[in-house]
Amino acid sequence: MNLSQIELLRVLQETGLNLSKAAEKMHVVQSAVSRQLQLFEEELGSPLFERKGKKLVALTPLGQRVMDEVSAINQAKLNIQAIAADYLDSNHGTIHIATTHTQAKYFLPAPIRRFREKYPGVRIYMVQTSPEQLIAQLHEHKADIAICTEKVEDDAELITQHCYEWHHAAVMPKGHPLCEGELSCERLAAFPILTYSFGFTGRSNIESAFKAAGLELDIILAAADTDVIKTYVRLGMGIGLIAGMAYDAFADQDLVARDLSHLIPRSITKIAYLKQNYLPLYSQHFIDELLVAAKERTQLS
Amino acid sequence: MNLSQIELLRVLQETGLNLSKAAEKMHVVQSAVSRQLQLFEEELGSPLFERKGKKLVALTPLGQRVMDEVSAINQAKLNIQAIAADYLDSNHGTIHIATTHTQAKYFLPAPIRRFREKYPGVRIYMVQTSPEQLIAQLHEHKADIAICTEKVEDDAELITQHCYEWHHAAVMPKGHPLCEGELSCERLAAFPILTYSFGFTGRSNIESAFKAAGLELDIILAAADTDVIKTYVRLGMGIGLIAGMAYDAFADQDLVARDLSHLIPRSITKIAYLKQNYLPLYSQHFIDELLVAAKERTQLS
DNA sequence: TAAGGTTACGGCGATCGTAACGATC
DNA sequence: GATCGTTACGATCGCCGTAACCTTA
């Protein structure tokens, strides 16, 4: 057993058990990885993969168990490298952030700007995905830190930190009937609604609020990001239900935003990362910066 | 980075950072490990060991962090091998049990006999140590399963299972004044006491019982095992406070045992093993056997 | 001077690449 | 015939062992 065999198994998973692609990723010829796999299976005494003809089509039960350990080894290997790199120079490196459009546009700019001033040598990569993909990004080592509102919890391999709480707001063109008077679920439900797609940005809280009131929403647009919603609100298509922080008092002067904290349960945005994954010092400072920004935001509102 | 370098680091810890001894353990010449260590440190960019002259004297802060990951890799490597071996033949292998004299002599014989009938191909190794060493044995991979009464808990890397509960008993020669009448802490404390060493077999429960009663025990013998205690009780040196199950109605006919469950809090014997450590099927069956024996014992009493 | 560690160098073997072949869609 | 995997074989590079040397208790 050696580390390149372990690496091979990891890459094989990534490539859908394709030896040729795995060879390419590892910068060796295909015959080499073929033989390494044979040697490893021989050493263990039984096959790790189900084969159909010569093709690898699935993991054997043994293979599945072994894969868990392979992940552990791979994680530890990455950690050693990260720890050493961090120790050599804790001002340079990379952070991969996975997050959603709303966070990327309305929350992250401030903390990221401040972080970049302190750590100009750290490259920040942002991956923007759907909330349900965020955690997967962590597990696949495509992201170090995920910032998300829905779908976290109950993952023993994850550490999650409370970041900040926010409420939804209703946005509408100036002069709309809902600009005046007390807002209620009933009044809102009387208009066509534009809001987030399922699983995005607290959508589930919107659902639960109106379901509790026994109301059916007429959702005529479900978008992944706020800008699309605002665009169609401007066209007079209906009421937009968006995250409160996504209303920009300056850029959105032509729209009216009304707080819905009394109608829709608060949403909680969290920071998540893998428990087993070593985060360099600067990443920890990045998280600190997020928490500072979160605190500022809560004091503001 | 490769697995033998990782292995080297592990062995270096075992040998007290002695390169020569590490080389010997790894069946290679000393110069080889010296160079491998250099290469690895070079790859990481900074030293893993503090050196005094040429000698390795301590881990650097980097080294300490790296060592944690090294342990993880080593554990995963062992797991892969164990899983594969288990998959090939789940009826052969080894179990290393770490336990104390009392468990080894008075509890384990029955479950081990039954287990051996079912799994004649499994070699059972027993390491008998002091309770405080038991957990260390697990961490050092010198034992797979620890069976112990004191000093477990609050170790996140451990899984502990409740095994059985038992009480202490007082043993004395026939005809001793304490053979008759109600037993109390006061009556016991009036005699010289022979019992377990600190940290052994529920000794702490004995302490707390008498401390609660405001009594000082005159402990004239503190032994690690029950047989020594019984031997000196037979010589008339005093009252023996031993684990109830350590009294053998047949072999100890010349002694009188009196239950102390109303005076001394119950002791709990637990099974512990490393969370990260893969236990072969037969080991899991061995634990089942322990639990069966534990149940039988509690029904008896 | 014994024990622990480093450096230099030659030899051997593990692993790679080339290449030809086999199978499956 | 294109994709995917295996087998055979020569070449190379990494790693080991020998051996001489350095350093400190």
Structural class of the helices, strands and pairings of chain A?
alpha/beta
Largest interface: A-B, 27 and 27 residues
* Count of all domains of chain A: 3
Low-confidence stretches of chain A: none
Helix content of chain A: 40-55%
Number of strands of chain A: 12
Give the biggest beta sheet of chain A.
Answer: 5 strands, mixed
For the termini of chain A, the CA-CA separation is: 57 Å
What's the overall geometry of chain A?
Answer: elongated
String of helices and strands of chain A: HHHEEHEHHEHEEEHEHEHEEEH
State the assembly state of the protein chains: homodimer
**If helices are DSSP runs of H or I spanning 4 or more residues, what is the number of helices of chain A?**
11
Walk me through the topology.
Two copies of one chain form a homodimer.
Chain A: H1 3-14, H2 19-25, H3 30-44, E1 49-52, E2 55-59, H4 61-88, E3 93-99, H5 101-106, H6 109-118, E4 122-128, H7 131-139, E5 145-148, E6 158-166, E7 168-173, H8 185-189, E8 193-196, H9 203-212, E9 219-223, H10 226-234, E10 239-243, E11 255-259, E12 267-274, H11 281-300
Parallel strand pairs in A: 3-4, 3-5, 8-9, 8-10
Antiparallel strand pairs in A: 1-2, 5-12, 6-12, 7-10, 7-11
Helix pairs in contact in A: 1-2, 1-4, 2-3, 6-11
The first copy, chain A, binds a DNA duplex (25 and 25 nucleotides) through helix 3.
